[in-house]
Amino acid sequence: MSARPFASGMISFGLVTIPMKLYSTGESAAGIQFNMLHKKCRSRLKQQYICPVDNEVVGREDMVKGYEYSKGQYVLFTEEELKALVPEPTNAVEITEFVPLEQVDPIYYEKSFYIGPDKGGDKPYRLLAEAMKQTNRAALARYVARGKDQFVLLRPFEEGLIMQQLRYSDELRSFSEVPVGTAEVKEPELKLAIQLIEQIATDEFHPETYEDTQRMQVRSLIERKVQGEEITAAPAPEPKAQVIDLMAALKASLAAAKPTAEPVSIADRKPAKRSARTAAEPVAEISEAPKRKSSKR
Fold this sequence. Notes:
Layout: E1 7-13, E2 16-24, E3 49-51, E4 56-58, E5 65-70, E6 73-77, H1 79-85, E7 92-100, E8 109-117, H2 122-135, E9 137-145, E10 148-157, E11 160-166, H3 187-199, H4 213-226, H5 246-256, H6 275-278
Parallel strand pairs: 1-7
Antiparallel strand pairs: 1-2, 2-8, 3-4, 5-6, 7-9, 8-11, 9-10, 10-11
Helix pairs in contact: 3-5
């Protein structure tokens, strides 16, 4: 079944315009949400705003919006003033420059959207996608829609284009705020850590081997509850022993990750075989054998 677009607009760079449509990259039904109900009659509850000073429920007609500029001090805005602050939507992705894709760190990525051509845009759409693919460049652009002035990036993806909504630089917290300590990494420890990474590394990324087991368990539990089954909580797992000696932890990890003599196909690879996740883990945290999708080899 074909995906349904949720918005349409134009991509523009120079004097070239490309009619486009935007599509969601995710399945909205994938998430599981629970509603708040009245325990007595199981009716769905409604939210209300209560004034703690007057101790009364406040209706929307008696609400105003304000910004707290100092502790307990607010400046008020009318609906007309707030509407004046909302940019006029153009639904146009206005490309301002092209940059090497590897220069944009994924930390800036916030949301992803598929871009498809709209009527009459097939050829220029393909042209832009192929040109960016061959030059290994991405497009930085402004996208004004739904009352927001968004900073976005367009990049080649499979047979077309994908749009990444980016964070502005002042929305990112500096890593210098994160305390990392001054521990010394010894050469033997570093060699063992590198050996462990190489031992469970692959050159390909296969996300289909990873599953949201917690969500699957919740869905299973919901189905069992719908069928009227009584559910009892499973006993909590025994806490795993903490390995204090870093060298001992690395050696134990290497021993646990040794490959078997039997060849393993790509389809049968365990999640722990993904270098993308393992390489992102700090060396000091390598104290347990990598998790696998299945205990069988």
